[in-house]
Amino acid sequence: MFHKMLVAVDRSEMDQHVFEQSILLAKATNAEVMLLHVLSPLEDPYISPVFTQPDAIYPTLQTPPMDSYNYVQEWEDLRKERLDWLRSLADTAIHAGVKTGFSQNLGDAGRIICDVASSWPADLIIVGRRGRAGISELFLGSISNYVLHHAHCSVLAIQGQIIDTAANH
C-alpha cells in the first residue's frame, strides 16, 4: 500500500482534520509521514511588501514605505512560529506511533509540494481542499488542483467544508 506519505499542512481551519486523517491512515498502513508547510508571500495570511503598500497599487495614496527591517523581522517571526507548530505536529504523530519528519519551504505551494514529494520520494500526497469553486478558485487558485494535476504519485484530497454562496443570498 503506502509507505511514504507527504502531508501538506497550512494552518487553515481544516488543517487539524487533514493532520488527524493522515495520522490515522499512516498508522493503518504503517507508513512514514513527512509534514510539509510552505510559506508563500502571495497567500493569506502571509506578509507581502507589495500588497501591504497601497501606493504600489494606487500610486495616488501617499503612505510611508514599509520599514524593511520590520518586514524581515515579521517574516523571521512567522518562520519560527510555523517551525514550532510543525515540530509540535511531528511530536504528536511520533507519540501516536508514526515515524514522522517535517519540512518548511518558501515558494509556490503547489510546486513545492510536488517537488518535495518527488525528491523524498512519497508514494502518496495528502492535501486539504477548501471547497472553493468558480470565481474564488479562479482568483485565489487551487493548490490541491495543481497537485492533483502535477504530482508524480497518488494524491488524497481531504475535503473541507464547502461554502455555499448561493444560500447566503
UniProtKB/TrEMBL annotation:
Give the matching InterPro entries. Answer: Rossmann-like_a/b/a_fold, Universal_stress_UspA, UspA
* Domain UspA span(s) in chain numbering: 1-158
The highest taxon in the source lineage is Bacteria
Homology family: Belongs to the universal stress protein A family.
What name goes with this protein? Universal stress protein
Species this chain originates from:
Halotia branconii CENA392
